[in-house]
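User: Once you have settled down, look closely at the record that follows, taking as long as you need, and be ready to discuss the fold:
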Amino acid sequence: MSARRNSRDPLGAALDLVGDRWSLLIVRDLLQGRTRFSELRGSVVGIASNVLADRLKRLEAAAVIERRSYSIAPPRAEYFLTPKGHGLGLAVGALLLWGERYTAHELTIIDQACGHTVELVYRCPKCQHETPRLRLRIVEP
């Protein structure tokens, strides 16, 4: 698929932004409350410090995260998801649920109120009904 096609396709555009090996893992950890570079480096298994720094800069440039300084000497920062970044929570959750079902896993998504696991549900916002996956179609707008 050409770069031009990706820019017109929402999935291609999203993957251009967060489809590398590390970005969604960083988003996952930010969703879990890890905000400092050292916390992210320790929780994103296998990521090199220079790669983490590069991904954080890319995500900041794309307005997915924002950087906030908490120390001037030495310079230190925390990273927080923007509303755009929080929107990726649904994609991270969907991939986590898929991984829970089809791979070996260590995490699951639960409802904090009842403690039960949850599932991804598609809902028509106009009709207010759940849409079964078999009725979903990807179409041109």
